[in-house]
Amino acid sequence: MIVGVGVDLISIKRVDKACRRNPERFLKRLFSSAELALLAPRPAPVRSAAARFAAKEAVLKAIGCGIGPAALREVEILAPPGRKPQVRLSGHAARQAAAQGITGIEVSLTHDPPFAAAIAVAYKRQESGGLEQEKEH
Q1: Domains in the chain, please, with CATH?
Q2: How open is the CA angle 58-14-116, to the nearest 5 degrees?
Q3: pTM of the model
Q4: Is the pLDDT of residue 93 over 70?
Q5: DSSP states of 8-72 as a string?
């Protein structure tokens, strides 16, 4: 059952500008060491960073807390090359998701200059294990 959906769109130039001002501070404030290790070898790391930033915001929207109660670093977007992105939560974000019974989050990322975007769908597994079907009357 879907619990929440979040979407975010960001200007790649905005991320690039923020990163150029103080790259180490900017990147460490937003991304875990595992995320940074996956971003570094990418051919367009700023585009990928922007897409992951958008994914973090989309996830926080999908779990219903947004930025403020939870920090962007509490949402990790781990996407090894050629594999679908995985979401790992910690801190307040993890507690918020658990309180809602969220058992999984799917994300989709894209970047096509000048924008990067992401969508997140938070869900919880159903007890029946199958698709909900409309009851006949």
Answers
A1: 2-123 (3.90.470.20)
A2: 40
A3: 0.88
A4: yes
A5: EEEEHHHHHHHHHHSHHHHHHHH--HHHHHHHTTSSSHHHHHHHHHHHHHHHHHHTT--BTTB-G
